[in-house]
Amino acid sequence: MRAFVTGASGHIGRAVVAELVAAKHQVVGLARSEASADKIRAAGAEVVRGDLDDFAGLIDAATRSDGVIHLGYKHDLAFGGTPGGFLAAAQHDVRVVQAIGEVLVGSSKPFVSTAGTAQLALFGGITRIGTEADVVVSGPRVDGENAVIALAGRGVRSSVIRLPPTVHSSLDHHGFVPMFIAAARKNGFSAYVGDGANVWPAVHTLDAARLYRLALESAPAGTRLHGVADEGVSFRAIAEAIGNGLGVPTKSVSAEEAPSYLGALAHFAQANNPTSSAHTRALLGWEPTHAGLLADLADRHYFA
Fold first, then answer.
1. Burial class (CB within 10 angstroms; exposed 0-12, middle 13-18, buried 19+) of 179
2. CA-to-CA distance for 110 and 100, rounded, in angstroms?
3. SS3 240
4. CA distance 215 to 227
5. Residue 40: which of 246, 119, 48 has the closest Cα?
6. Do 259 and 190 contact (CB within 8 A), yes or no?
7. What confidence tens digit (pLDDT) does each residue in 99-140 have?
8. N or C: which terminus of the chain carries fewer CB neighbours within 10 A?
9. How big is the CA angle at 115 (ends 5 and 31), to the nearest 5 degrees?
10. Angle at 10 between CA 147 and CA 243, to 5 degrees
11. What is the pTM for the complete model shown?
């Protein structure tokens, strides 16, 4: 299969490209710089130059593909401190998936996009164990997910992989774990909020990459999937692992104090997001095999 991958040079994208190439798929990766292009070529894929603002280029690459995996996202806009940036990035993603989806209508080609399990807690108010059957009506990133799922009714084999807040591995340099590590370095202690009993799901990058391949190859149209290995790790345990890795104390802060120490991360640090992937595993035969989050943090590569 000739697969077009956005975000192909990123943390998860590079692992997805390598997974697809190893499975003998032909891969074309989107690159916005020559440095990104070099990473994609090194993984064995072709390169198309452009970015997420180049709608004509996205449409052309999607048209010439047998399927699309959409991993690209304006993370710098969402988390870079720009006022309104989080919402603006999410709105832009809706336009991207609509543009790609429109050229796939009636083709029965696969379109695998990306969302987050955290949206179940943050925008759906779900605090019990979230499942693939849970649907949130609207919200940042939720609207993009729902737009992709709706394409199933228009002849696209569309699916969405909800990733946990922590997709971890030695490839992860800009995700939530490095961001919390940077905050702990700055503060001189690793913070959790309240009693830290709220939990986050997690998955290893390489396990997530395998799920993207399986979804591209065989996920039924209109499928929501959960790329979750650890169903829920307490945020206090995560903070303690970060503190141990840095050699700094771990400290509880109040919800009122949290923004002073964690900035924009304070809201996410309080999310309670236990999440199941039972349906995904049964549907696609996906079983995570790599280290869990706490074991990966204990491996110390995050603190090198």
1. middle
2. 11
3. helix
4. 11
5. 48
6. no
7. 999 999 999 999 999 999 999 999 999 989 999 999 999 999
8. C
9. 25
10. 105
11. 0.96
